[in-house]
């Protein structure tokens, strides 16, 4: 159920630095909500800042098999139109190491009618749409004056 995938853009960077030297971003959420597209946009944004990273996507935590890669940030992705999505992420948050609680995890919400989840768990909240690439890029690279709401 939880299968790691590395984005093609991240694979292209692997010749420059070893996996231990690159930043690792884990995206957790149900299948079919745009995790790969978000991962690709993050990799593209990181390239513009000379940051090398790998993005891995999983449908839930805990992982069924040991994961030996470096993870620097965890993104929980919720589709508020899906109860399964909300329940899967809520269950996964409990398996996250407490070192990720402050500043190393983010909550990305699509179809965001109910927003109190971020307040309950004290995570960052990013507003975005996955319907077009320009909107997705602005979600990944928010404006300076309004860093949490795009």
From TrEMBL:
Family annotation (Pfam families): CENP-M
Principal location: nucleus
Protein known as: Centromere protein M
Record bears the keyword Nucleus: yes
PANTHER family xref list: CENTROMERE PROTEIN M
Keyword Chaperone (UniProt): no
Subcellular location: Chromosome, Centromere; Nucleus
Organism of origin: Hondaea fermentalgiana
Keywords linked to the UniProt accession: Centromere, Chromosome, Nucleus
Any Gene Ontology CC annotation: nucleus
């Amino acid at each position: 159920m939880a299968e790691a995938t590395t984005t093609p853009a991240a694979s292209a960077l692997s010749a420059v630095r070893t996996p231990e030297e690159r930043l690792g971003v884990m995206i957790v959420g149900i299948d079919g909500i745009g995790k790969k597209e978000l991962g690709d946009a993050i990799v593209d944004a990181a390239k513009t800042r000379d940051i090398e990273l790998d993005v891995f996507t999983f449908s839930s935590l805990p992982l069924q098999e040991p994961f030996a890669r470096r993870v620097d940030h965890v993104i929980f992705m919720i589709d508020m139109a899906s109860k399964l999505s909300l329940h899967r992420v809520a269950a996964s948050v409990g398996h996250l190491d407490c070192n990720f609680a402050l500043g190393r995890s983010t909550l990305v919400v699509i179809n965001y009618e109910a927003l109190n989840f971020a307040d309950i768990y004290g995570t960052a909240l990013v507003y975005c749409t996955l319907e077009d690439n320009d909107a997705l890029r602005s979600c990944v690279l928010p404006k300076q004056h309004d860093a949490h709401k795009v």
